[in-house]
């Protein structure tokens, strides 16, 4: 009998890594985390989008689909390159270690990043400057626009190009773009150098992960933000007028949890315009993503089949309608360019047969979330046929205890009513104290080819360890950080104990090489 390939992974965004500068970064602690996974026979590290965050610090409301979050740049690595002084590393005091205090991190870190940029421009070696020039050339298709966008956000102290910026610049009139590019030349250069720092460090970390047989799973939001450089520069691919005013916005329709639906506010795509252009923007976006990561989860995958579009002036999502997406034509175009598409389809919620067909025809695994599986049947017993219970998982799916949008498993369980807790305990054959461990064990033992666990569940964090509270702009969102000494030998043993008994020690990178 042919041995089935089975893989394991951990979900943790780099901002959640420990360290002394108020936020996790791409430096030594990130490499220590990769080494922990490798030593534990875990072959996948799943992250959230690496983009520069927008309103509410959400990586899903990014300022760019291509740029990297400057706050992830490691001060330690800049010091090692001679771009900062030793005392700069110890100039931070009193940072909270349990979460990211974004205002204070920015206040502390941005001046040091500017100092490193100035030192680089004044004193870097000829070899390093050649690398920087090559980076600019290779990235010109997004870097020039992003750097101008960022300096103009600083100039206006506002990213809403469509309502706050001068009209000629908002509409990208050539004279205005040329004038501001010249006027802001020094600031544009600084942002380009920061992106060079970020991508240099990310490439080194990605290479280190590859050397240690750890694949990095990225995350790609289907939509872009209205106040992003992507919307500013590519409005012809979005349903907005020439002045940048939205005609339709994205959301989801009313359901049992939200009687008025969810109004996300993102611009929606003009798929006819994208198709006529050969989906060139999306080809570049996916090419860029799969250069940075080895696999990618596409958020709101069903939007490629059909998306819920709401008139822009509406205040709820009730009056929207389903508008057909590009379907298979889109993925066929990507495959012609990229050959292999290692994609996880985020297919949570109400999914239609046409979405399932689009997913399955392309060989994309979907997602199964254990927390969603514990429902009553009409007799008050556990519904054993539920799609999200592990004994029902097929091979072509990725099994999770929970995601960044859910409570931690401990927080979720602690908030259940007693009758519901009893269903969980009886299904897992465990007591209250060990429920998180048995949830992890259950997804690892399932038939799913991939099983990925949020790091918060590995340390059994309570509700205060969740990453995001959907539909809110709480300062607690996107701020969780793991305990300082949690990536130790005890964690290695714990990881090893949950992957080896269930044959989840497969090398995903090696498997990927057989497909290309």
Structure description:
The chain contains 19 helices and 12 strands. With 516 residues, it is an alpha/beta fold. The strands form 2 sheets. The protein has an 8-stranded parallel sheet with strand order 9-6-3-2-1-12-11-10. Strands 5-4-7-8 form a 4-stranded antiparallel sheet, with no helix packed on it.
Task: Provide a short characterization of the protein structure.
With 516 residues, this protein is α/β, with parallel strands linked by helices.
Keywords:
single chain, 516 residues, alpha/beta, 8-stranded parallel β-sheet, 4-stranded antiparallel β-sheet, 12 strands
Main beta sheet: 8 strands, parallel
Strand order of the largest sheet: 9-6-3-2-1-12-11-10
Rg calculated over all Cα atoms: 23 Å
Please, what is the average pLDDT? 95
Task: Give the SSE layout.
Layout: E1 7-11, H1 28-39, E2 44-46, H2 75-80, H3 86-89, H4 102-123, H5 126-156, H6 167-170, H7 174-183, H8 185-211, E3 215-221, H9 229-233, E4 248-252, E5 262-267, H10 271-276, H11 280-292, E6 295-299, E7 306-311, E8 321-324, H12 328-338, E9 343-345, H13 353-361, E10 366-369, E11 397-400, H14 409-414, H15 418-428, H16 435-445, E12 450-454, H17 455-458, H18 489-499, H19 508-515
Parallel strand pairs: 1-2, 1-12, 2-3, 3-6, 6-9, 10-11, 11-12
Antiparallel strand pairs: 4-5, 4-7, 7-8
């Amino acid at each position: 009998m042919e041995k089935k390939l089975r893989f394991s992974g951990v979900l943790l965004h780099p901002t959640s890594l420990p360290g002394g500068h108020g936020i996790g970064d791409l430096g030594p602690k990130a490499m220590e985390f990769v080494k922990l996974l490798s030593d534990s026979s875990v072959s996948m590290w799943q992250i959230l989008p690496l983009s520069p965050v927008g309103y509410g610090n959400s990586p899903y409301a990014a300022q760019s689909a291509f740029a990297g979050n400057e706050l992830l740049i490691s001060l330690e690595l800049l010091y090692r390159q001679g771009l900062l002084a030793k005392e700069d590393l110890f100039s931070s005091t009193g940072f909270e270690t349990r979460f990211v205090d974004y205002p204070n991190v920015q206040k502390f870190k941005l001046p040091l990043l500017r100092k490193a940029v100035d030192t680089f421009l004044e004193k870097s070696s000829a070899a390093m400057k050649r690398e920087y020039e090559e980076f600019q050339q290779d990235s010109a298709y997004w870097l020039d626009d992003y750097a101008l966008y960022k300096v103009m956000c600083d100039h206006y102290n506002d990213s809403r190009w469509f309502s706050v910026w001068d009209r000629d610049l908002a509409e990208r009139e050539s004279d205005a773009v040329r004038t501001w590019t010249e006027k802001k030349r020094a600031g544009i250069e600084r942002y380009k150098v920061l992106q060079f720092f970020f991508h240099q460090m990310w490439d080194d970390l990605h290479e280190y992960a590859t050397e240690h047989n750890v694949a990095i799973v990225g995350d790609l939001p289907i939509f872009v933000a209205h106040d992003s450089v992507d919307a500013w520069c590519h409005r012809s691919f979005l349903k907005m007028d020439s002045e940048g005013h939205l005609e339709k916005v994205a959301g989801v329709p009313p359901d049992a949890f939200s009687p008025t639906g969810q109004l996300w506010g993102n611009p929606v795509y003009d798929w006819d315009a994208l198709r006529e252009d050969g989906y060139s923007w999306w080809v570049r976006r996916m090419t860029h993503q799969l250069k940075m990561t080895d696999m990618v989860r596409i958020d709101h995958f069903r939007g490629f089949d059909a998306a819920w579009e709401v008139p822009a002036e509406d205040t709820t999502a009730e009056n929207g309608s389903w508008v057909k997406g590009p379907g298979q034509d889109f993925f066929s175009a990507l495959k012609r360019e990229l050959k292999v598409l290692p994609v996880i389809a985020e297919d949570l919620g109400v999914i239609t047969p046409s979405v399932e067909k689009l997913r399955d025809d392309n060989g994309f695994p979907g997602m199964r979330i254990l927390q969603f599986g514990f429902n009553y049947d009409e007799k008050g017993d556990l519904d054993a046929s539920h799609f999200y219970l592990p004994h029902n998982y097929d091979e072509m799916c990725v099994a999770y205890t929970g995601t960044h949008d859910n409570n931690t498993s401990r927080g979720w369980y602690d908030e259940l009513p007693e009758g519901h807790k009893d269903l969980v305990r009886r299904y897992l054959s465990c007591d209250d104290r060990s429920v998180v461990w048995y949830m992890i064990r259950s997804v690892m033992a399932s038939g799913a080819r991939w099983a990925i666990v949020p790091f918060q569940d590995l340390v059994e964090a309570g509700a205060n360890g969740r990453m995001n509270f959907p539909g809110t702009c709480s300062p607690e969102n996107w701020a969780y950080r793991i305990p300082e000494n949690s990536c130790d030998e005890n964690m290695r043993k714990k990881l090893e104990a949950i992957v080896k008994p269930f044959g989840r020690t497969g090398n995903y990178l090696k498997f990927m090489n057989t497909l290309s």
